[in-house]
Fold this protein.
Amino acid sequence: MCNSSNIQLDPLSDLLDFIQVRCKLSGQLTAGGTWARRFNNLDTIKFCAITEGSCWYSIDGKSEPIQVEAGDVLITNGTQTLTMASSADLVSDAVNTTIVQDSDGQYRLGEGCDFIMLGGMVQIDVERQALLLNCLPPLIHVLGISDEAKPIAWLLKQLAIEMKSLRPGRLSVISGLAQLLFTQTIRAYLEHAPDRDKGWLKGFGDQKLIVVLSCIHSEPSKNWGLEELAKKAGMSRTSFAVRFRKMIGVPPLTYLTQWRMYLAKRELMSGASVAEAAASVGYSSDSAFSIAFKRVMSIAPAHYRKTVKDEMMTSQTLYNSTSTDF
């Protein structure tokens, strides 16, 4: 049973496991002198880890460039273009210039090596892309000097070692380290996620809401009510409803329904019947389940089971896997 003393409460792991996030390291970018570039690969969730030097960056919609320094990590959700430059006054006029790879396979901009950055992309299958995109803000910036970023510093050091290594298994190690880098950056962000940030991921850092999210995730088929969930959070019904909506972006019972439908979608993908999928998330009525599924997923479950699953099996498409930009 779910309770506030359960040490297994970890809805963030539930989310990442469900989405099946896979991180791919694109390579190392070295820049020097005067340089600027727009990274136009939209619809691509990227992470940029600064290992040496500093530069200025901005995303579309930000009024002033911000400095990023060694040890910092950026994550962009692919909805707005990221621009990086050697100085703040170059950001506004940057274009999507070609990045040249040298004989060692490193990407280079400008002249010299004042600035070094590791870049990577997040790969998820197309069926789960909307869930991850909706939960992330347009940009996450974690400072390397923060206490929460200490594990990130170790990971960056290990990545630098493995990228120069010729030891067997290096590619698997690099992939695993990139995965940890993404997760640790998310964890560090949740410690001090700004209220102004869009995306409901920040709710996973709220200690009261973690208990509620864990209850929902661990027992999605239970007939949860607002009063009971408020008690789990140790709050009044009204205060809980307001706080949940502010952090997550939807009312608690709406989130419950959405999570159930994502789980049901996974069941349908694995071959379950509509009745089996409905029962797995607490619906005794197929018709009620079908109405809820279509409202959330914009497709009837029977139709989804018949068509979308076949398309996914034949295409085996990975979200973002075809992007060639750094």
